[in-house]
Design goal:
Keywords: Dioxygenase, Iron, Metal-binding, Oxidoreductase. It holds the Pfam family Dioxygenase_N. By secondary structure, the protein is an alpha+beta fold. The chain folds into two domains: 9-59, no CATH class; 84-320, Aromatic compound dioxygenase (Protocatechuate 3,4-Dioxygenase, subunit A, Sandwich). 27% of the residues lie in helices and 19% in strands. The protein is built from eight helices and 14 strands. It has helices at 23-29, 37-57, 61-77, 84-91, 94-102, 218-225, 298-304, 311-320, and strands spanning 9-10, 15-16, 145-154, 165-169, 190-194, 200-206, 211-212, 231-232, 235-241, 248-254, 273-274, 277-278, 287-290, 293-295. It binds fe (ii) ion.
Length: 321
């Protein structure tokens, strides 16, 4: 319809068509015949949303350039120890949303497999393999030593899973991961543990500390512009893998943390909130943290997951992370 100001409007989308109405489709149509169906589909959708975003908000060249510079700065800051692009996605909730979409099976119900949570930007490949009962803490004085223990089981049968690997990492009491902190030994507060026949695990770690995500780059600029804080509730990260089972990337969160309901990257789920219990009888631990992980076989996982989630695609993901 023609509005009183002479601008043509499409009432079905309530979009103001003062811009070339054929432009977006022309860009989408430029995709060639050899593009895969998945690439064709998601790229067309991306172009449509990007163009609609620009039109609806009447983005100017200066604003677009400012956004572009944030992206470029994030790229320049990123290396094998820092992933600023991922951090920017995290503060917009995108990684948590994609995690939810990818791992639909995980829910907050008690009898479901362990819920997933975002990987975050601080995981490092090839953390040291350690023996059960070892510590992951080195060169740190603390009154928060914790004995974490539990079992990895098949969520459906309850049977222990032999050969499950727990890859664990968390921050030091100063709120820094080891790769952010030159005073910590390399690979401090990280380790990989493999279960035996009984599926059980135990190791010493620290009760973690809440910490700010790095805010000296684009993610920090965005947070300041949005009048938001950079804090994450205290948590421990895990990747649990086992032959034949769908890997789980997750985090567990300390219930008493003041940011538990206000995570800067929106990753907290109810079933992942835990209680550290004061512990007596072990001179090496101030707290005890029992926690069991429940995995789903690929067959069970695929019954509930979104289409396209297969062992191959998960393996590809595993290779990437
Ligand atoms: Fe973290």
């Amino acid at each position: 319809m023609m509005a009183s100001n002479g601008i043509v409007q499409d009432d079905s989308k309530n979009t103001t068509h003062k811009f070339d109405p054929n432009f977006t489709q022309a860009v989408i149509n430029a995709t060639g015949p050899k593009a895969s169906p998945r690439v064709r589909k998601i790229t067309a959708s991306l172009i449509q949303h990007l163009h609609d975003f620009a039109r609806e908000n009447e983005i100017t060249v200066d604003e677009w350039m400012a956004g572009l510079e944030l992206m470029n700065e994030a790229g320049r800051m990123s290396d094998n120890k820092r992933n600023e692009g991922q951090l920017v996605c995290d503060i917009f909730g995108l990684e948590s949303l994609v995690d939810e979409i990818t791992y639909k099976l995980a829910s907050d119900a008690q009898d479901e497999p362990t819920a997933t949570a975002i990987l975050g930007p601080f995981w490092r490949k090839d953390a040291p393999k350690r023996n059960m009962g070892d510590t992951i803490v080195f060169n740190i004085e603390s009154n928060d030593w914790t004995l974490m223990h539990g079992q990895v089981t098949d969520y459906k049968t309850g049977k222990p899973i032999e050969g499950a690997e727990l890859d664990v990492w968390h921050t030091a009491p100063n709120g820094l991961y080891e790769q952010q902190d030159p005073d910590q030994p390399d690979m401090n507060l990280r380790g990989r543990f493999t279960t035996g026949k009984d599926g059980k695990y135990n190791f010493y770690c620290l009760r973690p500390t809440s910490y700010p995500i790095p805010y000296d780059g684009p993610a920090g600029k965005i947070l300041r512009a949005l009048d938001r804080h950079p804090m994450r509730p205290a948590h421990i990260h895990f990747i649990i893998t086992a032959p034949g089972y769908k890997p789980i990337v997750t985090q567990i969160f300390d219930r008493r943390d003041k940011y538990i309901e206000n995570d800067a990257v929106f990753a907290v789920k109810d079933s992942l909130i835990v209680d550290f219990k004061p512990y007596q009888g072990d001179p090496k631990a101030d707290f005890e943290l029992p926690y069991d992980f429940k995995l789903a076989t690929y067959e069970d996982a695929n019954k509930h997951s979104v289409a396209g989630t297969t062992e191959e695609s998960a393996t590809g993901l595993g290779a990437k992370i």
